Each structure stands twice: as C-alpha cells, then as structure tokens.
Amino acid sequence: MTATNRIIRVIKGRRPKVVVIGGGTGLPVILKSLREQNADATAIVTVADDGGSSGVIRDYINVVPPGDIRNVLVALSDLPQLTLDIFQYRFKSHDAFFSGHAIGNLIIAALSEMESGIFDAVQRLSEMMAVDGHVYPAANVALTLNAAFQDGTQLAGESEITAARKQIKRVWVTKTDPDDQEEPTAVQEVVEAIMAADVVVLGPGSLFTSILPNLMIKNLGEAVKQTKAEIIYICNIMTQKGETERFTDANHVRVLNEHLGQHVVDTVLVNTGQVPANYLDHQKYDEILWPVEHDFDGLRQLGCRVISDNFLKLDNHGVFHNGQKVASEIMNLAFQVNTTKRGE
C-alpha cells in the first residue's frame, strides 16, 4: 500500500506517534498495519535473541542477532516487493555456512562491522530501504537474557531458559561480551522516542524472551515508567512452553508490572476469538500450548482498561493476531488519550 492510499489520520497536524516494543513474528505484523493506518511508528527491537540464523551469526562474528530487526525493516519499508523478497530470502544451499541464513541477516551483520555498532547500521539500512518510521535496536550491543526460576536455579540464554520448562521468577539482561561488565543501556534516541510517544505498545510477542528483555534495560524501562504515553499491552493469544504455561491474561500483566516495580500497563488488548479444536499444527508451532485464559476481574484489579474483541487470525494452521484490527484499536487509543494526557 502506497502513501497516497493509506488511511490518513492526524493529531493536530501530525501523525500519531506509536512506539512498539518487542520482538518475534508478531511485531512486524502490527507494524505493517500501523504504517498502513498512517502511524508515525517506531519499533524498539530486542537484541537478546540467540536462536536460528541470528544466533549462528552472533556466535561467528559477535554482532547483535539481526533476525527480528530484519523482519521489522521489511514491515516498514516502501521498497518494491521483489526487493524485499530478495532481502528476506533464506539460503537452501547445503553449504556449511550459508545454509539457512537469510540474506538480510548477512547484510545487517556486515553493516554492523562497517558502522560503529548495530544502531548506526540499522539507521543506514533504514535509509537504504526507504523505511517509513524508525527501527531502533533496544541496545547497541548484543545482550544475553538471564532467568531465575522459582526453584532457585538460574540459566542464561533464551533457548536454554525456555527449554528448561521451569516456572520463571524473574529475568534480566547482561552484555554478551564477557569483557564488558557495564550495565546495558539504550541509546538516547530510544529513550526520546518513548518519552515523545502518544502510545507505547508492548507486544505482541513472548513475554519473557521478547518483551521483558527490552524493559530490563534500565534507562529504557525507566522511560516506559515515566512517559505520559498510554501503555498498551497486546496479550498473547496462546500460552508458550517454558514461559507462560497456565498463565491467564492477568498473569501476563502482573509479571510486567512486577518486573518494572510499579503498575505501568494502562490498557490491555485481549482476544476473545475461539481457536478451533485441533486447528493448530503443534509440530510446526512446537512452542505453542493452548489459549490464554481470561481473568477480567484480575485485570481490573490491576487498574487496566480492557479492550476485548475477536483479534484472531487463523492462517496455515497457525494462530496469529489480526494486524489490521489491533492497529485500529491502537490508533483509536492514540487519539482518545492524546487530549487528556497531553492537554493539546
């Protein structure tokens, strides 16, 4: 969809500022729909992934894992589809190095070496890809996710944490480089985007491994707590192995608030669409368990406004959020809260 036929919506002569924080496959879906609805979108993307092509590249050349960043760039790009398809192409060769790698991941890794880090690399690539909006890595260096479990044990690394299938008590991030013991920080542009936003959206994405790794970066988390923006949480449709087994929607919000040390979530988007029995392909989506149970009383006790609707999209035996419907709710909230929170 081109700029000329997008839904044009403005707040006092400007586009609504929407910051989306997270990672994983759901983030690009929401961002693409927000772009089509004329949001001034900023994506703040996790840099703590250690799986797939991203993880292999990070192990080889010690750069921030590029997979989530690659998908977000494509979602916000105005380049022709063929060019984007090439950027997204994943090698099927049996070559020991290239097999399974996406071309875009290799380009991001190369630019990270050419520039002063992942942040400047992504800004350069955003210009090259005609990105409508902003794509900000949550930190300028690779981070490692750490978890403490309810049984008192600890593990490091996203893959290790989820594979343990234990109940997570809390998570935090450290710099992956063992020689750099300084506390991870977000660059100033990330903090400024959060402070200037009309709405800040958490998710959709894995609670402990896609959303919280960003919020555990101290100055980023502080910005989320201090901003005047409406904080919206897009609750997951399904629970996940090793993360949110047996979680209700209220459990998700409670964990977010506990990690940030105060009630931060203003509004929760909750799916009420029913997933058909035996629809989900559990072999293809092996981390997914069953639908998140609703606890509307619990959400209200946490001080949340609840927006519930059929946000469900079924595709190829997978369960996803309907990007257009979710983006419409986010845009409506941006307009509703603007006057009361900013006095404009």
TrEMBL record:
Cellular component terms (Gene Ontology): cytoplasm
Cytoplasm as UniProt keyword: yes
PROSITE patterns documented for this protein: HSP70_3 (PS01036)
Cellular location(s): Cytoplasm
InterPro entries registered for this protein in UniProt: CofD, CofD-like_dom_sf, Gluconeogen_factor, Heat_shock_70_CS
Main location: cytoplasm
One GO MF term attached to the UniProt entry: LPPG:FO 2-phospho-L-lactate transferase activity
Family annotation (SUPFAM superfamilies): CofD-like
GO terms under biological process: regulation of cell shape
UniProt superkingdom: Bacteria
Transmembrane annotation, as ranges: none
UniProt keyword terms in alphabetical order: Cytoplasm
Role noted for this protein: Required for morphogenesis under gluconeogenic growth conditions.
Family stated for the protein in its record: Belongs to the gluconeogenesis factor family. Belongs to the heat shock protein 70 family.
Protein name in UniProt: Putative gluconeogenesis factor
Source organism (scientific name): Latilactobacillus sakei subsp. sakei (strain 23K) (Lactobacillus sakei subsp. sakei)
Classification lineage: Bacteria, Bacillati, Bacillota, Bacilli, Lactobacillales
